[in-house]
Each structure stands twice: as C-alpha cells, then as structure tokens.
Amino acid sequence: MIRRAFSAVAATVAAGWLIVSVVMVIAAYVSTTDHSSGSADTSSSVAVGTTSTAAGELRLGYFANVTHATAVVGVAHGDFAKALGTTKLTTQIYNAGPAEMTALLGGQLDAAYVGPSSALSAFAQSHGQALRIVAGATSGGAELVVRPGITSVADLKGKTLATPQKGNTQDVALRAWLKQNGLTANPDGTGDVSVNPQDNAATLDQFKAGHIDGAWLPEPWASRMVAEAGAKVLVDERSLWPGGQFATTNLVVSTDFLTAHPDTVKALIDGQIAANSWITANPAAAQTLVNDQLKALTGKALTAAEIARAFSEQTVTDDPLAASLQTSMDHAVATGLLKQTDLHGIFDLTLLNTELARDGRAAVSDAGLSSK
Asked: CA-to-CA distance for 320 and 330, rounded, in angstroms?
C-alpha cells in the first residue's frame, strides 16, 4: 500500500527525494483520516481532563544546534525528565527539519523541535491533520555567510551556496531572499545561483576546500564558518524581519499524540518553560552546558568565542512568534517549494498559555491561526 501511495505522489512532486519521502509518509497518514476538503481540521484544541492522560513514553526529536538550546538544555539539565515524571523520555538527533518531519509523520516521533518551514510543509501536505505547533523555542540565529570577496547580492550570480536540507527553514529563507533580490535559485538546481543542500558539517568542509561560496546556516554553524573558515556575514536574517523577531525553532507535536496525551504535552511544555527560564537567568552556565552537549552529540566542542557568538545571535522564547508564520509560508510558495495553504489550525497554544498564566506570565498570540 505504501509503495502504491509513494508512486502516486512521486509522479506529481518535483521538490526532490527528501520532500517526496515526507509526502509518502503523509499519504499513508492522511489515507486513514477523514478530510473532505483541503482546509485545516480545527477540532483538535485540547484541554487537560480530570483523568490522567500521561503517556508511557515520549519520543522527542531535536538538533545538535545552538538554535535548539531549549531542547539541548531541557534534556541535559533534567528539566524535561523532571516535568515528565514517570513518562520515559526517548530522544533522537537530526540534522534538518524535513527528515525529522518524515520521522514524526511516520510515527517514529511524538514531538519535535523544528523550524517553521518544515512544520509548514508537513501541515500543508497532510491537509492540516498531522501536527500542531504548541510552543516556540528560538528567535533569530541564522545568517548567510560568504567568502570575503562577495560583498553584495549581485556578486552571488553564478555562485554555489549551501543550506542544511532542501525545504528546511534556512533553505527557504535563502531562496526567498535571492528571489526578492532578482536572482533565481530553482528547486531543481538551475538558476542564477546554485543551492546545494547538505549536512552542516559537510558545508564547513566544502567551504574550507573552496567548493562552495557560502551558506545560509543556523547557529552554531554560521559562527563556525566565520571563526574557522574566514567567512563574512552578508545577511543576518534578523535584519529582514520586523523588530528582528522571527521563529527559528518551534515545538510541534503529533496531533494524535496531543489528543491522546495532553497531560504529557503539558508536562513537556512545563519542562521547556523551566529550561528557557534557566537559560535566560544563567547565560554563562547555559553556554557551557550546551557546548558540552554539542561535544557529546557531535564529537566536537565550540571555542569559547564561537559559543558566545552563537548565543548572541539568537534568543530563547516560549512564544512561537505566530505572526511570522504566514510570511514563512509565503516565502515557501514564492520559491516553488509549497502550495499556498490555509494555516488556520496549525497552532494550539491552549496548554502553553495555561502554564504561562500559572507562572503569572502573559499569554502569547496565535495570530488568529489557532485550532479553536
């Protein structure tokens, strides 16, 4: 059945094998769900009941990146485990969002820290069925870094740039920015600028070897390119957004898991709030902890200057900065990576705002895109 579903989808999808793999899994998911129209199912807003809905296990995905400091700290500092109580926490590390969303849609993950573009893709292709954004995590922390001789967007014509993965948040940001500045970078690899999606570690090696001219990367990879390879910042993505605020990482949860286990999702959000509060109150200790974890997860620690620079480029936040999501969708549509989709239902911030209120903090906005 899955092979047949894959063949049918693959015939109509031109965005590359990784996006096809996501759609294949989504096809299996959607085939078991009633969705008579392409609009989002807005009936899944949850409330914690009087009986326990705690899961026996929570499978969580995240990246070994500074932009995922919330998850890195939540795991290593014990905030997630403490909040989850008897629920077992199982974690998996990913390099970029499309592969992570394939795992979530395939039933291998229950929740994930991921960039907005990858979450949007999964939501759009599943007709609003597959996931909900339940909290933010990071704002900022992404840059286009290039060779010193490149000083303007015009200098990029004919050059080769890298991103973490086709269709991921930085990949969409790069292609959209090039298009806005009159340069093409088509999903099939053609255009004025060649975009080469690849593993971040490979990007650093390729840049050092002179095989690529730059990359749009999340932290700490942008800082490593600057410190270790002599790259220069051409675009700090914060300069492209109102107030410098945009979602780099959000917390998404499988809709099925959210419906079945709201108590567990609430506990995960409690753990995140604790982790972000600790990071904000203890920036030096947080940098040390995250750096130690990056070494454990990737085999290489950052220098003191690199970890400090990476942290300075971003802000941890429980706010998903929902107002930036439609712009992210518009960028993906403009670059040919997604079709325009009604985003109503993609957010369910009920549990987050309940927990924020309990701590005496203001509610965060869903920009009118909640599942209510």
From this structure: 17
- Give the CA count within 13 Å in the CB-facing half-sphere of 236: 15
Find out whether 249 and 115 touch, Cβ atoms under 8 Å: yes
- What is the rounded distance in angstroms from the CA atom of residue 338 to the CA atom of residue 329? 8
CA nearest neighbour of 237 among 248, 249, 227 = 248
How far is 210 from 221, CA to CA, in rounded Å?
A: 17
Q: Point out which residues pair with 59 in neighbouring strands.
A: 90
Residue that the structure tokens 């870094």 belong to:
145
What angle separates helix 2-10 from helix 17-31, to the nearest 10 degrees?
Answer: 130
Return left, alpha or beta for 140; rule: phi > 0 is left, psi -120 to 50 is alpha, else beta. left
- Cα separation, 73 vs 188, whole angstroms: 38
- The predicted-structure confidence for 115-154, as pLDDT tens digits, reads as follows 999 999 999 989 899 999 999 999 999 999 999 999 999 9
b/e 316-335 (16+ beta carbons within 10 angstroms → b): bbbbbbbbbbebbbebbbeb
Global pTM reads: 0.85
Q: Identity (one letter) of the amino acid at 308?
A: A
CA dihedral 162, 163, 166, 168 (to 10 degrees): -170
Q: Kindly report the CA angle at 346 between 344 and 348, in degrees rounded to 5?
A: 105
Within the chain, what is the greatest distance between any pair of CA atoms? Answer: 63
